[in-house]
Amino acid sequence: xxxxxxxxxxxxxxxxxxxxxxxxxxxxxxxxxxxxxxxxxxxxxxxxxxxxxxxxxxxxxxxxxxxxxxxxxxxxxxxxxxxxx
Length: 85
Known about the structure:
single chain
């Protein structure tokens, strides 16, 4: 795993650890049903695993730093503007 990728995964881990500790503190001082706590932690675990896998699978692209910003073609912008009108 590339260094930048490892840093991104570590940051994601740190963020989710903080969220879990925050929720744990709330659950500790509030009267919450066990079922609710399990549902919240299961859902959060799913979000964590999905995002962590996405970061790990993403291959670093060294060309990213040299790419010019992409702008949509005017015809694409026009069509998007029509969607939902």
